[in-house]
Amino acid sequence: MTIWKKIIFSGAFLIFLLLSIQGWMFADLVNDEIKSTLDRQLESSKDSHIAMIEGYLADIEANLDIVGSHKALENYFTSRYFDDGDGMLTAESSLERFFIRIQKAKPQYREIILSTIQNDPVLHISNNRRIEKLNSPIQVAPPFDSQKIIHQLIESEAGDWILQSIKFLSFSGHVEGFVCLHLPIEHLVRHVFGHLNDINMFYLMSIDEKKIVVGSENIDSFMKNNRIVGEVTDWVIFTSPIPELSLKLTLAVEKKKAYSTLNMLEKYEIWFLCLALVFSLIFLSQIAKKITRPIQKLSDWAFNIQHGELDQKKILFPAEINSKDEIGKLAESFRTLTLKIIEQNNNLEELVEKRTSELRQSKEEAEKANLAKSEFLSRMSHELRTPMNAILGFTQLLQMDTRNPLLDIQKDSLEKVSSAGKHLLELINEVLDLSTIEAGHLNLTIETVDIVPIIENVISVSKPLADQRMVSIEYLKVPNRNFIVEVDKLRFKQVALNLISNAIKYNSPNGSVVISFEVQQEDKLILGIKDTGNGIPDEKKDKLFMPFERFDSENDQIEGTGVGLSISKNLVELMGGTISFESTLGEGSIFYINLPLTEKVRIASPPVNDEPTSLDIPLSTDGKQKVLYIDDIPANVIMVEQILNYRSHIVVLSAANAMNGIEIARVETPDLILMDIHMPGMDGITAFKKLQTLNETKDIPVIALTADAMGGDMKMALDMGFNDYITKPIDVHNFLNTIDKVLAT
Asked: How many Cα atoms are found within 13 Å in the side-chain-facing hemisphere of 508?
C-alpha cells in the first residue's frame, strides 16, 4: 500500500472518529442535521415525482404537436373550405385512418377527437373505430394563442377521472379547430407512481382542497377526511402544486420509517467510535515512520547539493529513500532534475547559439510573411485597367478618325495624351510587382536626365484631372535653369505623377496645387508639391507610406489602392533620394522629393514616333442591329458608343447597372450584349446567369468586356457560355472585328 493510500485510509478513520466523538458529545445537533438531510431527500423525491408528471405532460404535448402538424389535418381543413364534395370525404377518410394508427400505437389515448373552433365535432375515434356522435361537448375555453396546448381533468360519465389534453390548430394564420386526447388518470398514476420507494402513500387533490382525484390504496380515513396539508404526528407530509392540472400532489411517509437510519446510527455509534480510534492510531504511527524519516533524508540531500559543486560524481542517492512510494518517486525526480541542470549548465553556450539561430530563422520567416502582402497587388489589374481603357480608347478613336482630320495643335495635344496613356499602360505590370520592389530585386535604368521636362510632361498629363476636379495647378519654375539628376526616368515620372495626382484628388473644390523647385547647398534638389486639401491627421501620419493605407479611405469618390506612396518611397530611396512631407489638418499638405544634383552631362534619349493608323470603316447596311452595353462607368459607355458609330448598321443601347440591363434586354431583345464583370449590386457573372434563365434573352450572344485580364477569369467566363472575352484597354480594330464576327453568325 502506498503512503498516499495510507494517508487517505487512516485519515478517513480519523475523520470518522472525530465525527463519532462529535455525535456522541452533541447527539442532538447531529440528529437534527441527519433529520434535515433525510427531509431534503424526501423533498427531492417529491420534486422527482413532480418532474415525472411534467415529463409525462411534455410527452403528450409532443404527440399533440405531431398530430397537429400532420399533413392530413391541413388537407382536411383545406378541402373543407374549398371542396365540399368528394375531396373533403377523401381527406376525412385519410384523417380517420391516421387517428386509428395513432390509437393503435398509443393505446393509452382512450379517445382522439377533432373539432372545429366552434366546438362542432368532426371526427371521434375510440377503441380503434370511429364514433359518429359525442355524448357531450368537449369542455374547452376559446384559445388565447393559436399555438396553446392546455391540460385539464374532467369526470367521465362513469365517474372516473380523465386527463383531457387539447391543442388548437392554426392554418393560414387562422385558428381552424382543435384536436383533443383523452387519457385515463390511472395511466398517469401507473407511469409516475409505479415505484414509490420509501413513500408510504400519495394522493392528487384539487387546488381548492375540496376533492381528492386519486390516491394510493392505503390512505386511511383520517387523512382522507381531514385533507392533510403540512406535518401530522408520526407522519412526514410534502405537498406541491401542479399548475398544469390545477392539482396538488401530496406524498406521505411514516417517521419511524423515514428516520430508521438515524435510529440505527445512534445504536452503533459507540462501537464505531472505538474502532475508529484504534485503527487511526495504528495508521498514524505507520505514516509518521514512512514519511517523516525519508523527507528528512531528502531535505539533507538537497541541502548538500545546494552548498556543494554541481558535479555529477558527488551526487549520491540516499539509500534510505530508494523506495517505490511517493517519496522515492519525488527523490528520483529531484535527482533527474539536478542532472538536467548540470547538463544544461555545461551546454549553455550551445543552447544560446541554437536559440539565436531559431530567432534568426523566425525573423526571416516574419519578413517573408510581410512580403506576402504584396501578392494582393496582382488583384489590382482591374482598377488600373479601367481608367486606361478610356485613355487609350478615346485616343485611338481620335487618331484613327479619317473623316474629321485633326489640326496640328490637336495632334500635338493628342500625342501627349497618347504618350501618357502608353506610359501608364507600361507601368501597370510594374506597379503590380510591389513584392519585387520590397525584396530589393527591382532593376533600375539610371540615366542622367533633366527632370524639368519630366515634371512639365506630368503636369500636362494631370491637367485634365485637375480641371475635372476644379483644382488649379501653379508651376513655379526657376528661370533658365536645368536640374540634372541621376534617376530612372520612367520610375521618377511614375513617382511625380503619383504625388501630383494625389494632390489633385485629395484637394478641396476650387483648391490649388503648387509645384516648385528649391536648391539647397548647391548639390541638393528639393521638388515640392503642395495642396490645399484637408491635411493628414496625426494618427495617420506614421502609416502614410505603409502599403494599402490611404489618405481618406472612407471617401468612396476617390479612386486608389493605397500602394502608390509606398511604391514611390521605395523607388525614390532606390534612386538615392528621400520623400518627406508636412501636413496641417484643415490647411493642406506638402510633399518633398529630395534628390542629389549631378554635374554629369545629360544624354538625350531618341524620340519615339507613335503614328496612329487609320480606322477601316465598313460600308453601312440597310438592316439595323442592336447592341446593348452594360457598364457602370459612363466614360466606358461613351467610348464604346463612339467606336460602334463606325458601324452604321448598329444601334447602341446602354445600361448603368445589371438590373436595368436585364430589363432592357428582355424588352428590346438586342442582337448582342456587351457585359462588364465588376459592377455595383449585381455583377456581370450573376447577370449572365439571370439572362440564361429568361426565354426572351437566353439565346442572345454575350461578350465579356472587362478589365479582368487574368487567365483564370477568362477561362471561367468562356466555360460558362460567354461568346467571347475582351479585356480593357480596348484595341479598337480587334474589338470591331470581334463584334462583326459575332453579329455575322
From this structure: 12
CA distance 516 to 501: 15
Torsion of CA 369, 370, 371, 373, to 10 degrees: 100
Consecutive H or E run containing 518: strand 512-520
Handedness of CA 93, 94, 98, 104 (dihedral sign): positive
* Alpha carbons 536 and 179: distance in angstroms, whole number: 72
Q: Please report the DSSP string for 590-659 in residue order.
A: EEEEEEEB--SPPPPPPP---PPPPP--PPP-SS-EEEEEE-S-HHHHHHHHHHHTT-TTEEEEEESSHH
d(CA 141, CA 143): 6
Q: Cα(392)–Cα(385) distance, rounded to whole angstroms?
A: 10
pLDDT recorded at residue 349: 66
Residues 6 or more apart from 316 whose CB is under 8 A from it?
A: none
The full DSSP string for 297-334 is: HHHHHHHHHHHS---GGG-PPPGGG-SSSHHHHHHHHH
Residue 73 reports pLDDT greater than 90:
no
Q: Measured on CA atoms in the order 673, 676, 681, 687, is the torsion positive or negative?
A: positive
β-bridge pairing 672-675 and 702-706: parallel
Grid cell 384539487 — which residue? 206
Name residues whose C-beta falls within 8 Å of residue 16's C-beta, 6 or more positions apart in sequence.
272, 276
Residues facing 223 on adjacent strands? none
Closest CA relative to residue 185, chosen from 220, 144, 215: 215
Neighbours of 434 (CB within 10 A): 25
Give the model's pLDDT for residue 715. Answer: 82
Helix segments in 239-379, DSSP class H: 255-258, 260-287, 293-307, 326-346, 348-371
How many Å apart are CA 500 and CA 485, to the nearest integer? Answer: 20
3-state secondary structure of 676: coil
Q: What b/e sequence results for 622-634 when a residue is b if at least 16 CB atoms lie within 10 Å of its CB, and e otherwise?
A: eeeebbbbbbebe
Q: Rounded to whole angstroms, how far apart are CA atoms 634 and 385?
A: 15
SS3 state at 468: helix
Q: For 647-672, b where at least 16 C-beta lie within 10 A, e where not — what string? A: beebebbbbebbeebbebbeeeebbb
Q: Which of 403-412, 551-560, 657-666 has the highest mean pLDDT?
A: 657-666
Name the CA radius of gyration of the chain, rounded. Answer: 48
Residue 378 reports pLDDT greater than 50: no
Greater confidence (529 vs 570) lies with 529
pTM over 0.70: no
CB within 8 Å of 461: residues ≥ 6 apart: 416, 417, 420, 423, 497
Is the distance from CB of 710 to CB of 381 less than 8 angstroms? yes
Q: Which of helix, strand or coil describes residue 522? A: coil
The answer to whether the CB of 56 falls within 8 A of the CB of 192 is yes
Report strand pairing: 650-655 vs 625-630: parallel
On the question of a cis peptide bond just before residue 509, with omega within 30 degrees of 0, the verdict is: no
Task: Supply 592's cell numbers.
Answer: 518633398
Q: In what order do the strands lie in the sheet with 161-171?
A: 129-130, 121-126, 111-116, 174-184, 161-171, 149-155
The contacts of residue 426 (CB under 8 Å, 6+ apart) are: 490
Number of helices followed by number of strands (H, E) in the chain: 23, 22
Alpha helix segments (H runs only) across 669-731: 684-693, 711-720
